[in-house]
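User: Could you check the structure of this?
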Amino acid sequence: MKLIYDVQDKPKLSQTLVFAFQQMIAIMAATLLVPILITSYGLDADPAAALFGAGLGTIVYILFTKRRSPVFLGSSFTFLGAYSAVISQNYGYLGVLIGVAFAGLVYVVIALIVKIVGSAWVNKLLPAVIIGPIVTLIGLSLSGTATGWLATNGGAAYNLVTIAIGLITFLAIVIASVKGSKTVKLIPFIIGIGVGYLVALICTLIGNAANIEVLQVLDYTPLTGIFKEFSVTSIVDYPKFFLIRAIQTYKDFAPIDLVAIGNIALIFVPIGVVELAQHIADHKNLSSIIERDLITDPGLSNTLLGDGIGSIFGSIFGCCANTTYGESIGCVAITGNASIVSIFTAALGCMVLSFFTPFVALINTIPKCVMGGACIALYGFIAVSGLQMIHKVDLGNSKNLFVVSAILVTGIGGLTIDIGGTNPLTGSPYFQITSLAVALIVGIITNLIVNGGKMSLDELDGLTGAVDNMGKANIEDQDQ
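Assistant: Sure, the predicted C-alpha cells are below.
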C-alpha cells in the first residue's frame, strides 16, 4: 500500500505530536480496560500504571527491533484467565508478576531457538493459506467487542442512541480518511472520535435537562470524582506501580515457594506459547502493510525478544502482559503513517501522561460506543488484510480450500479447549486454548496432511515478490 510516511521518516514535531496522540487514542481504551478487569478479580491494578507499563514496553520493543517495526504494545486480554487463576489461588501481586515473567521468557527461549535455526520454518509452517485466514480471524474475533460497545455502550441495556453515535463516529472517520485533505487523512481517528464525543456530549446534556435516560451517554464520574476533594493529586499523581504493591503486600498472600512457582508456570507458559501465533500473524500483517518482511528484518528473534522483554518490563510497572495491538496496526494501515518516531512519541506520551490524573480520567469518559465506532474501522482493516493474503491462495484447489475452511469455521464458531475445570471466581475455565489458537492448530495439521507443509507456486511467487519489493513502498508526496 502507499505510505505517506515510511518507517524511518520523521514528520515535523507538530505533526508527530498529533500522530502520536492519535495512536494513543486508538490503543488506550483496551489498554486501560485490562487493569480494570483485573481489579474486579480482587487485586488493585492501576490503569495509569498499565498505561505507563505499555509505553515502556513499547519503547523496549522498538529498541529490540532496531526501530523497524511500527506497532504499539498494549495490555493483552489473552492472559485474563491466567490472572484470575493466580488471584483465586491467593498468590497475589507477586504471583501475577512471576506469571507474566514466565510468559515473557517463553518468547525469549523461542527467540534464541530462532536465532540458532533461523526463521525459514515460519513460511513453511505458516504459509499464506494459514496466516491469511488467521489474520482475518483476529479482526473478526474483535468485531463482537466493537458492535457490543455500539449496542450497549459497555453496559447491559440495548440503546439505539449509542448505535447512532457509534455509526456517526465511524462515518466521520471514513469521510476524513477518504474525502479529507492530505493532513486530515493522517488524523481520521482524532476527528472521528472528536465528532462522536461531541454528539455524545450534546445527547447527554439534552438527556440530563429532559431527564431522558437513553440520551445520557457520557459518564462524567471519572472526571468529577478526582475534584471532589481537590488536592495536588487531583492534577498530578504517580501511578501505583505493580512491583511496589507486590513488595508491600507479599506477606498478605500465600507464600511463593517452589510448588507455587510451578503452579504459576503451568498457568502462564502454555498461554505464552499460544500467543506466539498472534505475534507472528500480527507481524506478517504489518509486513504486508509496510511492504517489508519483518520476519526477516529485523528478524523474528528480535520481534520476539522485544515483545517478551517489553512485556516483562511493562508488567513490573503496570501489572499487565503486553502484546502487539491490532488497533495500532489498523491505525498505521488506514492513515498510511508508519513512522517509528510517531510510535515512539506515543509510547513516551503514555508514560508522561500517566502521571496527569485529569488526562487518564478524561480518556475514561470517552463513551464505549464512540470507541466502538472507531473499532469498526480498525478491526475491519485487520480482517481485510487477511483477505488480501488469502487472495494469493488458489482456492480452486480443494487442498487449500480444506485448510482455509477448517480455520474459518473453527475460529468463527468459537471452538475452544477448556482444561482444569471452572474457576468459581470468574465462571471461566482455569486454562483455555482460545478459538484463535485452536483454529491455528487445526489449520496447521490440515495443511501438513493435504499439502505436506509445502507452499504453492503462487505463494512462492508472492513471497519472492515480497522479498524483491522489500523496502520499496511508494511514498505519496507530502508537504513537510
